[in-house]
Each structure stands twice: as structure tokens, then as C-alpha cells.
Model the fold of this input.
Amino acid sequence: MELLEEHHCFEGRQQRWRHDSTTLNCTMTFSIFLPPTTDNVKPPVLYWLSGLTCNDENFTTKAGAQRIAAELGIALVMPDTSPRGDDVADDAGYDLGKGAGFYLNATQEPWASHYRMYDYIREELPALIKAQFAVSDRAAISGHSMGGHGALILALKNPGTFTSVSAFAPIVNPTQVPWGQKAFSNYLGNDESTWQEWDSCALMQASQSQDAIPTLIDQGDADQFLANQLQPAVLTEVARQKSWPLTLRIQEGHDHSYYFIASWIEDHLRFHAEHLFAK
Done:
């Protein structure tokens, strides 16, 4: 691993690292905030998954999460949103290819050799974080938009891995909306039955009651993508049917931007802290 930059921040350390990923067959970067610790206490980790066109720096520089993470003693890990590099397949559209990995494992060419963000987030990156940094085994996950989709499916597909999950304006039903349909048809092919394992609504419908974890979703009512791409009420109805502990909050006047995230990130961090530090 190569340390690209480091900044003192709220008595903690904000770092950016580069490493060679065997899962993605390319060089990747991630950002990490390490809170101040005392008595060799290992902090739990909150993984943050960003949205379309973003990389590992958007949340780090725009959300203002470090102050509360330092107070609570939570490490923040921000991976990139897709594989990167000259050999990595791309598309002219902002919603496919680099910056748009959708946190799944692609099966179709030319995507399959690099676009395995699900395995990277589930296996390779957490193993790297635990090996290189003094953090505990307890983890939670959160994200925005495409990253909210990623956080939800990671939590739903891996019971027991995360204490809690949250999302800002997530794509909850990607098999039924344009962003998801474009990505899934390219990455996974035209057999729509294979898409279900990457759809939060389908995964929650098939979940077991013992696997449910506390879930918080914030959605702005002025979000330009709400009706056509996001539709959080669909997942909320599935949660109701399954008695899944999901709270959906509609935030008046908020759009899809990081101003929205910055406004409510403290709530999300305190929500996760309740469960990360629970005995």
C-alpha cells in the first residue's frame, strides 16, 4: 500500500491510500478517517459507499462527518465507486462504467474482468483494513444513491456482518428503474431473473426475520430523482410486510446533493454508534 496523503483532523487522521486489488485487477484508492483513541481501544468501522460519478474523496471532503466520528470513536472507510485504470472498460454515459460500478459482480464482457465491486467491498477491502489498521471487527455500512443501493444489498446479502445500515436517497428497486436497468442489462445481461440478487426489495422479501438489522433511510422531497429513480416507499412497504426495522424519513426541501448529506450525517453516525457499541 502507498500513502497518498494524510491530514490531522479533529485529533484524528484523514488518510488516502493506493493499493493493488486482486479482486478488481487494477490499482484502487480508498480514504480512511481514524479517530483519536485512548487505551489502545480499537474503533469500529463505518463503510461509506458513494454514488454515481463519485470517488473516495466526495464524502471525505463534503459531508463533514469527521467531527462526529472523532467524538464517537468510529473509523470511516470510503472506497472508490468502481475499478479504475486505462485497461478498465468504460462507457460515455455517466451512469455506466468508471464511477458507476453499482457494487455488483459483473458477468458480461467487457465488464466481468474488473467490475467486481461487491466482492471487493465484502471481502478484499475489509480484510485489508483489518490487516493494516487497528480497528475492531464491528462494522456498519451506509451510502448515497447508487451507494445507498450498495449499502443495502451488502447488508441484506451478508447477515451478521453489519450491526446496522443506513442510506441517503438510495436506489432501492434497481430492477424497475432506468439507472438500474441500464447497469444490470450491461453488467449482468438480459436475463432479468439474475438481476434479483442485486435488488434490495427482492432481497428483503426473501430475507429471514432473524437477519433483520436496524435500517435508516433519509430522502429529500425536492430530490429530482425521487419519482423516477429512487422510490423509497417501495422498500418501505416490503419492510412493513417483513416486519423489518426500517425507518424512512422524508426531509422537506432537500435535494440529491451533499448539502443534504451534510445536513443529516450526524444523525446517521449517532444511529450507527448505538448499534456498533451495543453490548
Notes: The chain has a mean pLDDT of 97. Residues 11 and 36 are 6 Å apart (CA to CA).
